[in-house]
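User: I'm writing a tutorial on reading structure tokens. Could you give me a worked example: one chain, its sequence, then its tokens, then a sentence or two explaining what the tokens reveal?
Assistant: Sure. Here is the example chain.
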Amino acid sequence: MSESKPRIGFAGLTHLGLCSAIAAAGQGFEILAFDLDEALIVGLREGRLPVSEPGLDDLMKVNRDRLTFTDSILDLGRCDLIYFALDVPTDESGESDESDLDALLNQVLTVARPDAVVVILSQVSPGYTREWQRVDRIVGYQVETLIFGRAVERATRPERFILGVADPAKPLPKAWHAFLASFGCPILPMRLESAELAKIAINCCLVASVSVANTLAELCERIGADWSEIAPALKLDRRIGAYSYLSPGLGIAGGNLERDLATVDRLSLEHGTDAGVIRAFVANSKHRRDWALRTLQENFPVAQSKGHVAVLGLTYKEDTHSLKNSASIALIGHLGAQPVKAYDPAAPKIEFKGQSVTRSASAAETLDQAEVLLIMTPWAEFRSLKPAEIVRRMRGRLVIDPFRVLKPAEAKAAGLDHRTLGVA
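And here are its predicted structure tokens:
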């Protein structure tokens, strides 16, 4: 380690890797960002980011002089601390494939200095980091708390650092501690398996909150209650908390939450523990994902319609380009031959095989002469839509708006048949 600040490397310039590396540069550290993809590195050197994340472009521009992008693995040999941020893909059931991470770890460990600290930031199953312990190496784990659409905030202003180490009683290696201490937040070292499971525990608690909100919001829709009136009361209860995830949604998506539920289910089967509540969370998520489709089928005779269905939002949430387990994509897949016009400000191109789906250039174009409107992703730009303008452009009046992008009172006053989660 140098006498001043440690040099930090990031291996795997995924969404997580890029956001983490650029945020680290913002703390005043010299960053070496490595990826095997030569085209990706060329684009980054030219200032082109492959991910959509509010504030990330500006953060990179401000700290560009501290960032070195490279596709030469030998460059990592100059680093005091090396983070592994490679994506660990999952299949449809949420099971992880760690083979690419295995290969990258093997390659980097051959060039890293013997005194370099190696930290796995990628999401792995409990026990994974233990398998990489070496007598001549310091290999640790650090919980990542990336949230798509809020990655810059999470990377630059972390709440705490949860670390997995071989011996929690010993001081952290100097390079690792110097970097983490620069953020001024609590540092929580624990045994390797505890840290790996802590990440899963966080996500399970989030899923539990969302599942409770979804279950009771659906009941509100049937008995005449309004979940938006109930949630604020719950957040004033100290046992629940002001920051609780109590907004109803269309099931869990994005991949990471699904991965963690699958991991707990698998481990419970292997070790003979009960995970019935986890399987209930999964079932509830699948049920709620189809809320918009059920609402559409109950209120709009698609088979009799000659016009198109307008869909605003394709990504699984706002401020991201990810389509992983998107409720909007699943909905469109169920519409068969029904003509669809869709708009999303960030979603990549996607092929809808055997369907009549047109990508519009704007929200307004999508609305023109539509029979029904579904606002499936709560992008900020959709909140500027005026109900009176929607009425003027559309042929029909049904608006299915799960996340209350439109204000219900204004929508009703304009003559729209406005349907949203959590209220009859």
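What the tokens reveal: The domain at 8-192 is CATH 3.40.50.720 (Rossmann fold). The chain has a mean pLDDT of 93.
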